[in-house]
Design a protein that fits this description.
alpha/beta
Length: about 290
């Protein structure tokens, strides 16, 4: 294990954890097994398989893609190339959505650009009375979300193909959640080895990373009931711009929330209860709901 950790030093924030997860993949065991049996030898065949996985990780391939799985919320999801890997910070959108709505309310909710289905599946499992609609333009993403839905036995989720709000023309929604691409095309972080393994269309957006966010904010009101909410994930320095986009779109009660790293990560707007546009002030929350 020490050798594996040494091989991955400099390849990510947690080389020991990465090495443990890859060894677990080879041994078909959990991490607790590694700690309970630290002296158990690994045969030559499995050692060679572990070495191959370390080589892939050292080359920048994300652990999630190597293993084919990623944990999100309380769920284990299948992941694959061509679909964005769910991030821990995106769990904030789930927290905010659950805090906005009662446990027993039969709401209709949409997750735009669902990818692996992470947000939609987390909401559907936490709120069985909700009807959750998950949309995406990518047939690869929708197929993967469908696989994850079937594996988890989630029946209150529907998959639709379409760009952002296009698939929801006739829907009347209580809540819309979206994690759209928000990285600017010129952002230097795009050259990071791990991001080169992820679909660029799920990461990059025009107009300094705000094009898709602005499009959603401008059109979401047409699909929301009076008093409905829109929650958008965004970059840590985009909060003010996202709040301005929500205000231009007619939303009120606008607020930005921070993730567990204390970075601005998501902004919320409410569609006016009176059904008319009102001026809105940006409200900064210090901690996520």
């Amino acid at each position: 294990m020490v050798r594996g950790e040494d091989r991955l030093t400099g390849c990510g924030a947690s080389p020991r954890l990465d090495a443990e997860l890859l060894l677990c993949e080879v041994l078909c065991c959990g991490r607790s097994y590694l700690y309970a049996h630290p002296e158990r030898p690994v045969g030559a065949e499995k050692a060679a398989a572990f070495e191959r996985l370390l080589e892939r990780r050292a080359g920048g391939e994300p652990v999630a893609l190597i293993r084919g799985q990623k944990e999100f919320w309380s769920l284990t999801l299948n992941v694959r190339p061509g679909v964005l890997i769910p991030r821990p910070e995106t769990e904030l959108l789930v927290e905010l959505a659950l805090a906005l709505a009662p446990d027993d309310g039969a709401l209709t909710v949409a997750d735009l650009g669902t990818g692996s289905g992470a947000i939609a599946l987390a909401l559907a499992t936490e709120r069985p009375a909700w009807r959750v609609i998950a949309t995406d333009t990518s047939p690869i993403a929708l197929a993967l979300a469908g696989i994850n839905q079937a594996r988890l036995g989630v029946s209150n989720m529907e998959l639709l193909r379409g760009a952002w709000l296009a698939a929801l023309a006739r829907a009347r929604l209580d809540l819309i959640v979206a994690n759209p691409p928000y990285i600017a095309p010129e952002d230097l972080h795009l050259s990071a080895p791990e991001l080169t393994h992820e679909p660029r269309h799920a990461l990059v957006s025009a107009r300094r990373g705000l094009a898709d966010i602005e499009a959603i904010a401008a059109g979401a009101g047409r699909c929301l009931v009076a008093g409905g909410y829109l929650i958008l994930e965004h970059g840590h320095d985009q909060g003010p711009a996202v709040c301005r986009a929500l205000a231009r779109g007619g939303f009120t009660e606008i607020a930005t929330h921070r993730d567990l790293a204390a970075l601005e990560r998501a902004s919320i707007g409410r569609w006016p209860v009176a059904g008319r546009y009102r001026s809105a002030e940006r409200q900064q929350s210090r901690q996520p709901v």
